[in-house]
Amino acid sequence: MIGTPFTSSAKKIMLCGSGELGKEVVIELQRYGIEVIACDAYENAPAMQVADRSYVFSMLDSNELRRVIELEKPDLVVPEVEAIATDTLAEIESEGKATIIPTARATQLTMNREGIRRMAVEELGCKTSPYAFAATEEDYMAAIEKIGLPCVVKPIMSSSGKGQSTVKTQDDALTSWKYAQEGGRAGAGKVIIEGFVDFDYEITLLTIRHVGGTSFCAPVGHIQVDGDYRESWQPAPMSASALESAQEMAAAVTKNLGGYGLFGVEMFVKNDEVIFSEVSPRPHDTGMVTMISQDLSQFALHARAILGLPIPNIEQHGPSASCALVVEGHSENVRFDNISTALAQPDTQLRLFGKPKVAGKRRMAVALARGSDVEAARAAARKVTEEVGVIL
Ligand code: AMP
């Protein structure tokens, strides 16, 4: 049952994190007449611009998180970022004050690369890159020795490539350690050292746990630069046997995390062998392509799943791609022009996120395109981002 917003029957959903992915989730929830409260650490975050109300506080601030949940009494709390006071979410869940999407345990495990890695390998036996954890420089140097070169170093609490680098020679080791110590979300701390996987390609398998079971979107292929997504496309060409292994792995991992919602399961594929990388218990940045490639985008699917609504089928509209528009510089007044020329190409779309500021490198928009094949779609999406003018 869904009631009327701003009345006692309203179904209320609180979003923790209000970026571009959250903005689309809010839009989809608004279509069902949900009362949405958006939270993030800065004012005018993208999802706040389309929500009914917003609160500005750090999602890592346990007291404030609890205070706002107790004040707003949402039916569901929907995390949009990894860095949240997840122990507070676990308490809220066990006190029966709100349902955490997908589950509080899933948010705890995926907030920390160590939690999810150990679950996937030690509980489920998934294949992953060789790995070790280190909290001190001494342990780190020993771990590099054990894993071997090249290897990838990441803070255990980080995302979008922050603090991540590849150690190719012994001379890079100290630089990577220092970089990881600066890039961790919660400041200096533990890192994971992963053997470098020389994969043929990588995919995100968008997996939905819903009232009727588990469904999959067609695999999404993507390219990352410095650990941050730049382009994605769907369907990623894969052999039937690799796809079957990927679906089995995604079903097992998401079943273990539990609850309802959409998950982005990231995997590497080498010679048809599927290697688990990580999972987001929420829509994934590479899944933005589904805004043009599917009748129900990953955001619409997430909304349906968390509202307990059925997902009988997902229609694919054919080869499609997304290309991120990453802006570099400093401004609190970014302007975009030449949009009419950029969008004069058929079967293209553009989403401007409305982020209030850029300081350094920031993803500010995404171009979407369909084409006769994924290469044509990728070229068209790239062309849109190249044509849009950015004024800082
Ligand atoms: P992550 O933040 O763990 O998703 O890493 C971001 C990106 O870095 C991945 O999508 C890969 O392109 C690359 N990457 C991460 N870990 C490895 C690895 N062990 N071997 C090779 N490439 C990796």
Describe what is shown at a glance.
This protein has helices at residues 20-30, 62-72, 86-94, 104-111, 113-123, 137-147, 173-183, 240-257, 290-293, 298-306, 339-342, 374-387; strands at residues 12-16, 35-40, 53-56, 76-79, 99-100, 131-134, 151-155, 165-167, 191-195, 201-210, 213-216, 220-225, 228-234, 261-270, 273-280, 320-331, 335-337, 348-352, 358-370, 389-391. With 392 residues, it is α+β, with helices and mostly antiparallel strands. The longest helix is centred in the middle third of the chain and has 18 residues, at 240-257.
Give a description of the structure.
With 392 residues, the chain is of the alpha+beta class. It folds into three domains: 12-100, Rossmann fold (3-Layer(aba) Sandwich); 130-195, Dna Ligase, domain 1 (2-Layer Sandwich), CATH 3.30.1490.20; 201-391, ATP-grasp fold, B domain (D-amino Acid Aminotransferase, Chain A, domain 1, 2-Layer Sandwich). The protein is 31% helix and 30% strand. It contains twelve helices and 20 strands. It has helices at 20-30, 62-72, 86-94, 104-111, 113-123, 137-147, 173-183, 240-257, 290-293, 298-306, 339-342, 374-387, and strands at residues 12-16, 35-40, 53-56, 76-79, 99-100, 131-134, 151-155, 165-167, 191-195, 201-210, 213-216, 220-225, 228-234, 261-270, 273-280, 320-331, 335-337, 348-352, 358-370, 389-391. The strands form four sheets. Strands 10, 11, 12, 13, 14, 15, 16, 18 and 19 form a nine-stranded antiparallel beta sheet that branches. Helix 2 runs parallel beside helix 3 (86-94), helix 3 runs antiparallel to helix 4 and helix 4 (104-111) packs across helix 5. The termini are far apart. 46% of the residues are buried. The mean pLDDT is 96.
